[in-house]
Design brief:
zinc, six-stranded mixed beta sheet, globular, hydrolase, alpha/beta, Purple Acid Phosphatase, chain A, domain 2, 7 helices, binds the ligand Nc1ccn([C@@H]2O[C@H](COP(=O)(O)OP(=O)(O)OC[C@H](O)CO)[C@@H](O)[C@H]2O)c(=O)n1, about 325 residues
């Protein structure tokens, strides 16, 4: 047994050489058949090349010796600049690339750019989500994955006159004084997250998360939470965080079974271990890979350890598990 450097528990050192199973990861493909451009802050974006990054990811997962069992796409499948009349075909083109993955299912989540382009109901259907945008699955005995809908409470993705959209606009109005609610100008520190391109997990979803984690904890399962929006300030820019990350984290911490929270959205990526020993890894974006470069990876799951093996701009990250029940 090893003392955890953060002093929050103990780590069972993993001696296994072969993973129990592996899964592929990719974030922010934001594909569009349009010329290269830049983000609002001037970072180059390669809208056509991003699907090539996905193609290379799928080839890599398919050729993985021990087998990649499923893959997780962390949202923003299509870019907001994609012409609206070509958005559905752009999403279908990306889904077709995921269909070339032979290892198992591809699990998707909603990002803000998905919702700029298509109605949520159409996305849930084309991305083959189980009737709604938050769900859980168990790919291996003793392991559970939770996919969050980080735009459940949001000013994007709901019809303008929908009560959720109206409540989210009021929420932003109270926290962001700018006339352009996408602008964090003047907001300090973590308050910079109160912008329209972010969102939150609604009350009903929080209750669902609580019950999934309670059951997982009772069954002794190890849980990985997947969300487009990062949940920890140490793993992302303040302007990239989920609006109610503190509420979501409180639920995550309550049951002591979550090993890691994986996210996309903040394209440069990030990593932190929180005070309860939960790993937070924000994945580097496929969209911002200059031609010929990559950002994807696979996570090897060992008893007591998750090991992200990154390709190209996606950094590798070793994540020894610090779960209270392991102590
Ligand atoms: N300061 C800003 C930043 C952005 N906008 C506008 O908001 C929309 C979404 O921005 P975008 O950078 O495309 O969003 P991503 O989801 O790709 O990335 C999120 C960040 O990386 C989180 O850290 C777009 O219309 C921008 O122009 C803005 O007005 N002001």
């Amino acid at each position: 047994m090893l003392a955890h450097p953060g002093g929050v528990g103990v780590v069972r050192a993993s001696v296994a050489r072969e993973p129990l199973f592996s899964f592929g990861v990719i974030a922010d493909v934001q594909y569009a058949d349009i010329p290269d451009g830049r983000s609002f802050l001037g970072v180059p974006r390669y809208y056509r090349h991003s699907i090539t990054v996905l193609q290379r990811a799928v080839r890599s997962w398919n050729s993985h010796k021990a087998g990649v069992k499923f893959c997780v796409n962390f949202g923003d499948i299509v870019d907001g600049f994609c012409p609206k009349d070509r958005s559905l075909s752009a999403v279908q083109a990306v889904v077709a690339e995921f269909d070339r993955f032979h290892g198992g299912p591809a699990y998707h989540m909603l990002g803000n750019h998905c919702l700029y382009n298509l109605p949520r109901s159409e996305l849930v259907s084309v991305l083959r989500m189980p009737g709604r945008a938050y769900y859980d699955f168990s790919p291996w005995p003793g392991y559970r994955f939770v996919v969050l809908d980080a735009y459940d409470f949001s000013a994007v993705g709901w019809p303008r006159d929908h009560p959720v959209a109206a409540a989210a606009r009021r929420f932003l109005e109270e926290r962001n004084p700018n006339s352009d609610k996408n602008s964090p100008t003047g907001l300090a520190g973590e308050d910079r997250r109160f912008v329209m391109f972010n969102g939150g997990v609604g009350e009903k979803q929080l209750r669902w998360l609580d019950s999934v984690l309670r059951d997982a904890s009772r069954r002794g399962e190890t849980v990985v939470v997947c969300s487009h929006l990062p949940l920890h300030p140490g793993a992302a820019s303040p302007a990239g965080l989920m609006w109610n990350y503190e509420e979501a984290l409180a639920v995550v911490h309550r049951h002591g079974c979550v090993a890691a929270c994986l996210a996309g959205h903040d394209h440069k990526g990030g990593y932190a271990v929180d005070a309860c020993g939960v790993h937070h890894r924000t994945l580097e974006a496929a969209l911002e890979c200059p031609p010929g470069t990559d950002a994807f990876g696979h996570v090897n799951v060992f008893p007591g350890r998750l090991s992200l093996v990154g390709s190209g701009r996606m950094a590798s990250t070793d994540m020894p598990l610090v779960l209270p029940r392991l102590s």
